[in-house]
Amino acid sequence: MEISNLNTPKHVAIIMDGNGRWAKKKGETRLFGHNEGVNTVQKIIKAAIKAKIKFLTLYTFSKENWDRPKIEISNILSLLTDNILKSEKEIIKNKIKINTIGHIEDLPKKSQYLIQKLIKKTNKNKDLTLTLAISYSARTEIIDCIQKILEDQKNGKFNCEKLNEESVNNYLYTKNIPYPDLLIRTGGEKRISNFLLWQLAYTELYFSNTEWPDFCESEFNKAIEEFQRRERRFGKVVK
Ligand code: IPE
Ligand code: IPE
Ligand code: MG
């Protein structure tokens, strides 16, 4: 199914949720769900390219997810690195620019190295910017932002009298990417779970009951089409 190019969201952010519940329903381990979730990631990246989305941001691992059982954490992290290794050729072929937000220094050294290498390699790509939120917390992002501003104020690099929305944006992890136009959360929960709190202020929200492993191109396109039918007012009156 082709979707209209009219009013396509420039930036789509996704909370990829429901891997564990999907697996449990099948009598499988949570790892089985995360494994299958990786296939959905591949499908949705392709769908985003097809739909001419310029920025795709995927909530991959939250800061709070570190409180999960050790075995699940190491499963998720090894899936992440294995997958980066496996997809490198495809990423380069599709001119995808890889970016991360969050504290990637919390990751094992090997994963950090692989990610940094791919970021450098794809730096000049322009078709799709794929941002992976890893060890990410929106509240921490805001605290980090305030700390950097105060530091720069102290060493004379920033004048706090000039503080405005634009300057805050320049100190966030997302400084090089626009605000999301559309946020999709799969898995049925209707919450933000500490994702992009500042950036989502005027984002259109779309909740799907489908668990992430079952999410697919046609469901993704359904979300885009719903976005295309919405009227964004940004607080103004539309004549
Ligand atoms: C999302 O699925 C993946 C991550 C948070 C890493 P979950 O693992 O949260 O699955 P549910 O929500 O427990 O079903
Ligand atoms: C949000 O899902 C984080 C990711 C998808 C990476 P969670 O499963 O961690 O969120 P809660 O616990 O349901 O709020
Ligand atoms: Mg969850």
Question: Any chance you could write out the topology, listing elements then pairs?
Answer:
Elements: E1 11-15, H1 19-25, H2 30-50, E2 55-62, H3 70-93, E3 96-101, H4 109-121, E4 128-136, H5 138-154, H6 165-171, E5 182-185, E6 204-207, H7 217-229
Parallel strand pairs: 1-2, 1-5, 2-4, 3-4, 5-6
Helix pairs in contact: 1-2, 2-3, 3-4
Task: Explain this structure.
With 239 residues, the chain is an alpha/beta fold. It has a single domain, classed as 3-Layer(aba) Sandwich (Undecaprenyl pyrophosphate synthetase), CATH 3.40.1180.10. Helices cover 43% and strands 15% of the residues. The chain has 7 helices and 6 strands, in the order E-H-H-E-H-E-H-E-H-H-E-E-H. The chain has helices at 19-25, 30-50, 70-93, 109-121, 138-154, 165-171, 217-229; strands spanning 11-15, 55-62, 96-101, 128-136, 182-185, 204-207. Strands 3-4-2-1-5-6 form a 6-stranded parallel β-sheet, sandwiched between helices. Strand 3 (96-101), helix 4 (109-121) and strand 4 form a beta-alpha-beta unit. Helix 1 crosses helix 2 (30-50) and helix 2 (30-50) packs parallel to helix 3. The chain is globular. The mean pLDDT is 97. The chain binds 3-methylbut-3-enyl trihydrogen diphosphate (2 copies) and magnesium ion. One 3-methylbut-3-enyl trihydrogen diphosphate (IPE) binds at residues 16-21, 61, 65, 76, 187.
